[in-house]
Predict the 3D structure of the following.
Amino acid sequence: MINPPSLQQLKYLISLAETRHFGQAADACAVTQSTLSAGLQELESRLGAKLVERRKRGAMLTALGQQVVERARHIISEAEALVDLAQAAREPLSGPLKLGVIPTISPYLLPRIMPALRRRHGKLRLYLTEDLSPRIAEKLDAGELDLLLLALPYDLPGAETMALFDDAFLFACRKDHELARANALPPERLNSEPLLLLQDGHCLRDHALAACNLMNRRGAQPFQATSLPTLIQMVDNGIGTTLLPAMAVAAGALKGTGIVTRPVTGAPTPSRTIGLAWRKASPRHDEFRLLGRDIVELSTKAGLTP
């Protein structure tokens, strides 16, 4: 009978696969290089197979080693889920929680609700990762993140979602722009407007165009920004106009600028949906829904939602 590998040995292999360097892998696992090397040798001995090709300048996994790493990630994820299940049963929203957030939400929402969340759930240790939707979705699927806070709709196979609140899109322009005189703007008024938008890869771009029915718009786009602050500066300097999420405006993103905003009309109101997403198999779904209700309550108190 084969003596199965330990979780620690599997973690060593995963770390080596990610760094391709024994020293860096050992540092990531907080052990000495000799301890990691011995652990990997024991893993190979238990499995009776070569998993790592040792080289002078690093390491490379064999084809079997790469397959073992994929299985190992799922095993580690399931083991951590067992711990999470027991923790959730003892006390909801306590212990570590790895949350992925997109950059068009994180700086506007989190600073205004985190202090209250910490007071409400003093034993919760929240680890934040800010990145674009495709990358945090990959990390969720791989078990590297527990929960996502992002804009919906977004294609997340194997995930369960919870809608929190709608975040309306506002037309933004300088005070001296001709459209600043309007109280509200129908989407068709924006069809030929040279809107500045975020670069491809930011879901805000597609959500804004789809919500305002502008996917086939005619206006040229003179500039693509990598972040909302850059986008706002470009509008403030008269390069063009844009669509901004109301949450960012309510959080003070336009402070110190000469930009005004106007609502975009429509039925329903053009908006994106802010929501949570987690793996369907996660044992913490009740906790996540509790956190979602807290986020809605605290966002409303902070004046970020209608």
Notes: The chain has three domains: 7-85, 92-164+273-301, 166-271. The longest helix spans residues 63-90. The two ends are 63 Å apart (CA to CA). The chain has a mean pLDDT of 89.
